[in-house]
Amino acid sequence: MSGPDLAALPRLPRDAEGPVFAEPWQAQAFALTLKLHEGGAFTWPEWAAALSAELAGDPHDDGTHYYDHWVAALEGLVTGRNLAAPAELSARKDAWEAAYLRTPHGKPVEL
């Protein structure tokens, strides 16, 4: 199975070798998207449409919040396909935030 056409994602931060990530969570969101696609949760055209809609909703973003839009698009697809309920996503976010806040600087966050 082939991956997404990265050229079709013009604002995707990248270097000569491919996508780049400023934070580990961005790489995890990217990997989760690939895994869900491989599992048949959505097609690449569906993903591109969802991400495009999120990006279009913030035309003044300079790319700084690209992965925030990425996660919002992913959450929309996941909840729209009943793969997870919005309450489940909210509870998971709250758990991650609590874990992050209690984790000493420089240590990995563990849920």
* Structural domains: how many: 1
Mean pLDDT figure: 86
Instruction: Give Rg in angstroms.
Output: 15 Å
Tell me the β content.
under 5%
Shape: globular
Class of secondary structure makeup: mainly alpha
Helix content class? 40-55%
Report the order of strands and helices: EEHHHH
Biggest sheet overview = 2 strands, antiparallel
Note the gap between the termini: 32 Å
Low-confidence stretches: none
SS element count, helices: 4
Total number of β-strand segments? 2
- The order of strands across the largest sheet is 1-2
Task: Give your account of this protein's structure.
- The chain is mainly alpha-helical.
- The protein has one domain.
- It has four helices and two strands.
- It has helices at 24-38, 44-56, 66-80, 86-102; strands at residues 14-15, 18-19.
- A two-stranded antiparallel ribbon has the order 1-2.
- A hairpin with a 2-residue loop joins β1 (14-15) and β2 (18-19).
- α1 (24-38) packs parallel to α3 and α2 (44-56) packs across α3 (66-80).
- The protein is globular.
- The termini are far apart.
- The mean pLDDT is 86.
